[in-house]
Amino acid sequence: MSEDGGGAKIVEVLAPVAVNQTYSYLAPPALSLVPGDHVKIPLGTREAYGVVWETRDHTGGASNLKSVAARYDRPPLSKNLRDSRNWMSSPA
């Protein structure tokens, strides 16, 4: 991949861990990820399952982000379900 990102995106991935935050990863252009996609990500010393929560263009420059390992061939999580999760996890 070129240093400018080569069309890559940065994706925010929600993993099933005990923190209420997403993790940022570099998504290679070949994966064509969109919010709701199910992905395999490196997490610490292992690989884990996650859901793409947001995407944004990689604006260039070198990045120290780890890359998404793969996209699972599953129907994406709907925006309604993602919005419900956000609502339930927000402070009262």
What keyword list fits this structure?
92 residues; 5 strands; mainly beta; globular
Summarize the structure in short.
The protein is mainly beta. The chain has one helix at 79-89; strands spanning 9-14, 23-27, 38-43, 46-57, 70-71.
How would you characterize this protein structure?
A five-stranded antiparallel beta sheet has the order 2-1-4-3-5, with no helix packed on it. The protein is mostly beta strands and 92 residues long. Mean pLDDT is 85; it is low at 1-5. It contains one helix and five strands. A hairpin with a 2-residue loop joins β3 (38-43) and β4 (46-57). The longest helix is centred in the last third of the chain and has 11 residues, at 79-89. The protein has one domain (9-73). It has one helix at residues 79-89; strands at 9-14, 23-27, 38-43, 46-57, 70-71. 12% of the residues lie in helices and 34% in strands. The termini are far apart.
Radius of gyration, CA atoms, in whole angstroms: 13 Å
Overall 3D form: globular
Q: Flag low-confidence runs.
A: 1-5
As laid out across the biggest beta sheet, the strand order is 2-1-4-3-5
- Our estimate of the beta-strand percent is 25-35%
Largest sheet, strands/sense/barrel:
5 strands, antiparallel
Q: Based on helices, strands and strand pairing, what is the structural class? A: mainly beta
Quickly count the domains.
Answer: 1
Q: Give the oligomeric state.
A: single chain
The ordered H/E elements are EEEEEH
Instruction: Please give the share of residues in helix.
Output: 10-25%
Beginning-to-end CA distance, first to last residue: 43 Å
Q: How many strand elements?
A: 5
Report the mean per-residue pLDDT as an integer: 85
Number of helices: 1
